[in-house]
Design a protein that fits this description.
8 strands; Rossmann fold; alpha/beta; about 240 residues; DNA polymerase, domain 1
Length: about 240
């Protein structure tokens, strides 16, 4: 599969939490239920949103540290199991698509650009969230964290999506909201854009993406702002262009 012209990618792969969907309140609710079961206190959604992005284990570790509790391995394991159980039972009652997402996906489909999802969220939760938000049919490949594949920033999850889409790394674009997403894309040899509104604790303009987007509605207009890396030359130096 090749790019449709010199600047348009053959595929766009998205991070999920903080990029396509605002899931912080649901994640916070499930986490607080798990924390209350063990009398560990509760957290506000504004704090939890900055803990999201590296999977349930890191989420739990960050929550415990925020609450002043030592994240001992046995406690982390127990709390992680409780969180996953609570999240599965609770579902995605309060999660929503960010502004501009649906229009972006419609425009990409109109341009015959294939789309996928690559997330550190457990795989079963990725598919359930996309189903609940009514957008699962847009994506030809979805890959969340699963046994046998290391989590981002290791490039394995992203490369698995690209293989499913039959697209080479330099023919694609990865869109996320964090430093983890930039590091993942660089390791995979994929150009990367970040959204401003996501769950990053640092200013996204400082994270080394090729482009920074106000909303995903701007995405189909940025192709000329991003130069795909030369597949023979390795990763390109970080550079950011704001839109």
């Amino acid at each position: 599969m090749t790019q449709t012209d010199n600047s348009t990618p053959a595929a766009v792969v998205f991070d999920l939490d903080g990029t396509l969907a605002d899931t912080a309140v649901d994640i916070c609710d499930a986490l607080n239920t798990a924390l209350r079961e063990q009398n560990l206190g509760t957290l506000e959604p504004g704090s939890v949103r900055l803990m999201i992005g590296k999977g349930p284990v890191v989420l739990v570790e960050r929550a415990l540290q925020h609450l002043g509790t030592d994240p001992q391995p046995q406690l982390v394991e127990s709390l992680c199991r409780a969180f996953i159980r609570c999240y599965a039972k609770q579902g995605n009652q309060r999660s929503t698509l960010f502004a501009g997402v649906k229009r972006c996906l419609d425009r990409l489909a109109a341009q015959d650009i294939r789309t996928g999802v690559c997330s550190n969220k457990p795989h079963q939760f990725c598919q359930a969230l996309l189903d609940d938000l009514g957008v699962s049919d847009y994506f030809a490949a979805v890959q969340g964290s699963a046994d046998g594949l290391p989590r981002k920033p290791d490039p394995a999850l992203l490369l698995a999506v690209l293989e499913s889409l039959d697209v080479l790394p330099h023919q694609a674009l990865y869109v996320g909201d964090s430093e983890t997403d930039v590091r993942t894309a660089r390791a995979a040899g994929v150009p990367v854009a970040l959204v401003r509104y996501g769950y990053s604790a640092e200013p996204v303009e400082e994270l080394g993406a090729d482009c920074v987007l106000q909303t995903l509605q701007d995405l189909p207009g940025i192709w000329t702002a991003i130069s795909p890396p030369d597949p023979q030359a390795g990763s390109q130096p970080p550079r950011s262009k704001a839109l």
